[in-house]
Amino acid sequence: MKKPIKICKNPDCGDQIVNYISSKKAYCDDYCRNHHGYLRRLEFNLEFDAHKKGMAKNYKLLKKYVDVGINNEDLNKLLKFGFDPKYLPQKNIYKNRNPSIVYYIIKDIIFELDPQTNHVNIYPKKI
Ligand SMILES: [Zn+2]
């Protein structure tokens, strides 16, 4: 029986793996395996940095509201000011309230997205 054609999983290589013995072989050699691992870590770190930066930017914007005592803003307005809902911390759900309202905590701020009014409620976190 002919062996199926295997292509090296290192995206910078893509060569066909010739004369492999184990069907689990995924790379030409150690270099290709290590290089793919390196690329994956690089990508992960870039995503991680982008997320951290995005959250910091969101926090700065929301903090301005809390600092002047405004606790409610239209989500569309926030988006226009640069708020990016792609970069949010872990989602929380109120257990004894309308379950469709979720809230997030960044540092000393709590904010909730109300899908019914499309508004964001912003509060200082009580210590
Ligand atoms: Zn390779």
Distinct ligands: zinc ion
What's the number of domains? Answer: 1
Radius of gyration: 24 Å
| Contiguous runs where pLDDT drops below 50 for at least 5 residues | none
Write a structural description.
- The protein is 35% helix and 20% strand.
- The longest helix has 38 residues, at 30-67.
- It has one domain.
- It has 127 residues and is an alpha+beta fold.
- The N and C termini lie far apart (70 Å).
- It has a 5-stranded antiparallel beta sheet. A two-stranded antiparallel sheet has the order 1-2.
- Bound molecules: zinc ion.
- Zinc ion binds next to loops.
Structure, briefly:
Helices cover about 35% and strands about 20% of the residues. The chain has helices at about 30-65, 75-80; strands at about 5, 15, 70-75, 90-95, 100-105, 110-115, 120-125.
Task: Outline the secondary-structure elements.
Layout: E1 6-7, E2 16-17, H1 30-67, E3 72-74, H2 75-80, E4 92-93, E5 102-106, E6 109-114, E7 119-124
The structure holds zinc ion.
For the structure shown, list the relevant keywords:
single chain, 7 strands, 2 helices, 127 residues, two-stranded antiparallel ribbon
